[in-house]
Amino acid sequence: MKDIYISALSSFEEGKLFDSFFLVLSRQNRTTQTNKPYLNFVFCDKTGQLEGRVWDPADQRIARDIERGDIVKARGCVTRYNDRLQMKVEQLRRAYASEVEKSDLMPATTYNIDELWARLLAFVDSFTDPDLKRLLTTIFADPQIAGAFREAPAAKQLHHAWLGGLLEHVVSLLTLADRIAPHYPLVHRDLLLTGVILHDIGKLRELSWDVGFDYTLDGVLLGHIAMGASLAERTMDALPGFPPKLKTLVLHLVLSHHGKLEFGSPKMPMTPEALALSFIDDLDAKMQAMASEFEKNDREGKGPEELTGKVWALDQRQLLNTRRWLADSPQPAAAETTVEPSEILVESAPAEPGQVAPPQQQQDEPSLFQFLDPR
Fold it and tell me: Cα–Cα distance between 209 and 103 in angstroms, integer?
């Protein structure tokens, strides 16, 4: 069984051999600057991705029939190139079905899916607008849609790119939207939350997640915005007496949620709900992208004062984990204070309904195991 995960490899000594199981996301034949052929793989498990290189493709210990989607057992060592972690592969074969669980090989949310799903349905149940509640209840009554919504990633690689990522992202946005709506009386709370739930529903068809995460042909040709709007429109048209004005507003939320034309939205936000949705969607995606980069820094053994690499999703900026940096600094001794009896301590407010606590990341302890001979 798998007991060495990609997240643990940053602590491994370079050149020390280890064995582990991976899912192959890609395989490419490449050549070096001196025209020497080599194989480039992208491996993954539930903790991340890793580039693997075979410098001698003719080596008899390297199986020649390995392709994308295969589960493999690899022996090799950790190397670093341009400050990036890689694996130098020395042996590679297909894994036996009994050797590894596929659930160990696909990144997945650290939240409980059943609890996330219950939170989403609780938000829908809290609606006071009967038409919007009817719309969402009808959509999720389809077991195929509901099942896919519980499984789908939110993206191929930028943010929440793991099983259950879409549901995690949507519940996070619902929590934000439910807090923002009372602060701005011009915002229709149920309409905003409907936009949150439907804005990325087209990703159920845009993305595939059977083997890694990739775009479907429909996804490439149509995109999730058009497919999501189409699903919402068909459902509203099938509901007797659904208000035409409400239909227009729901469709505008889906069509404008990327915020700008150059970001793929066919329309810019033109209602209070659409503007709020575009901002909180962008905020949640970017904050998750930052969190992932900080986790990557930790895996690579970088210190608290070291910036991340340049992050494409954040305009090629480098990032600093302020909490980790401050925690590493010496703290001055706290001055003694006297509290007068008249002073009142106010307890923190309880968590809002629908709030999700941040997950605790767990890392598996590495241990070596005997490599079985290739078939």
Answer: 12
Neighbours of 365 (CB within 10 A): 8
Distance, CA of 164 to chain centre: 8
Our CA dihedral for 119, 120, 122, 125, rounded to 10 degrees, sits at 180
**Residue 194 burial (10 A CB sphere; 0-12, 13-18, 19+):** buried
**Separation between Cα atoms, residue 357 and residue 324, nearest integer Å:** 19
Cα 61 to Cα 359: distance, rounded to the nearest angstrom: 40
Decide if 352 contacts 179 (C-beta within 8 A).
Answer: yes
> What amino acid is encoded at 174 in this protein?
L
Identify the CA nearest to 24 among candidates 105, 140, 96: 105
pLDDT block averages, 10 residues each, the chain of length 375:
82 89 89 91 86 92 88 91 86 88 80 94 96 97 94 75 88 95 96 96 86 81 91 96 97 88 80 95 87 79 82 82 83 51 34 40 34 32
Cβ 286 vs Cβ 314: under 8 Å: yes
The answer to whether 199 touches 169, Cβ cutoff 8 Å, is no
Whole-model pTM over 0.85: no
Residue 301: predicted pLDDT: 76
- Going from the N-terminus, what domains does the chain have, and what CATH number goes with each? 6-104 (2.40.50.140), 113-288 (1.10.3210)
